């Protein structure tokens, strides 16, 4: 992975560090962050954030600036897999909002609240 992707992975790791349930793995050229074995987000080359959401949320989020369907190899993914451009997540507040979107969409935020 390139420097921008590694820097993004460091930022994501720092923001998710309070959650012991998050696991980090290299997958598909991405540094993926998993919750309960499912990809939540990933740091991709160029500082692009891969975000997993439900298809309904993804369809709505595709209208946001800097958001596109993820492309993995030669395959364009469903609207449940989004690439968020590096410029959209330049500051940690913006990055955290996308992490929250992924957690809410996958139910992680609800589960974490129920555990408390």
Task: Please characterize this protein's 3D structure.
38% of the residues lie in helices and 30% in strands. The C terminus is likely disordered. It has a single domain, classed as Aspartate Aminotransferase, domain 1 (Alpha-Beta Complex). The chain has 116 residues and is an alpha+beta fold. The N and C termini lie far apart (36 Å). β2 and β3 form a beta hairpin. The protein has 4 helices and 8 strands; from the N terminus they run αββββαββββαα. The longest helix has 15 residues.
Label this structure with key terms:
116 residues; alpha+beta; Aspartate Aminotransferase, domain 1; six-stranded antiparallel sheet; two-stranded antiparallel ribbon; 8 strands; globular; disordered C terminus
Question: What is this structure's SSE topology?
Answer:
Layout: H1 3-16, E1 22-27, E2 30-35, E3 38-44, E4 48-52, H2 55-61, E5 67-69, E6 71-72, E7 75-76, E8 81-84, H3 92-106, H4 108-115
Antiparallel strand pairs: 1-2, 2-3, 3-4, 4-8, 5-8, 6-7
Oligomer: single chain
% residues in beta strands: 25-35%
Spell out the helices and strands N to C: HEEEEHEEEEHH
User: What is the strand tally?
Assistant: 8
Structural class by helix and strand composition: alpha+beta
* Helix segment tally: 4
**Uncertain spans, ≥5 residues at pLDDT below 50?**
109-116
Radius of gyration: 13 Å
Provide the CATH topology: Aspartate Aminotransferase, domain 1
Rough outline? globular
Number of domains: 1
State the helical fraction: 25-40%
Q: For the report, how would you describe the main beta sheet?
A: 6 strands, antiparallel
The pLDDT mean sits at 88
Please write the CATH class name.
Alpha Beta
By CATH, the architecture is named: Alpha-Beta Complex
Gap between N and C termini, in Å?
Answer: 36 Å
Strand order of the largest sheet: 1-2-3-4-8-5
């Amino acid at each position: 992975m390139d420097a921008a992707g590694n820097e993004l992975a460091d930022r994501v790791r720092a923001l998710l560090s309070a959650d012991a349930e998050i696991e980090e793995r290299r997958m598909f050229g991405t540094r993926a962050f998993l919750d309960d074995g499912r990809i939540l987000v990933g740091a991709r080359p160029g500082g692009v954030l891969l975000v997993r959401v439900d298809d309904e949320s993804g369809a709505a989020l595709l209208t946001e600036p800097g958001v596109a369907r993820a492309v993995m190899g030669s395959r364009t993914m469903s609207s449940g897999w989004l690439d968020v451009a590096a410029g959209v997540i330049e500051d940690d507040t913006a990055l955290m909002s996308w992490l929250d979107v992924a957690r809410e969409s996958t139910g992680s935020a609800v589960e974490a609240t129920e555990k408390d």
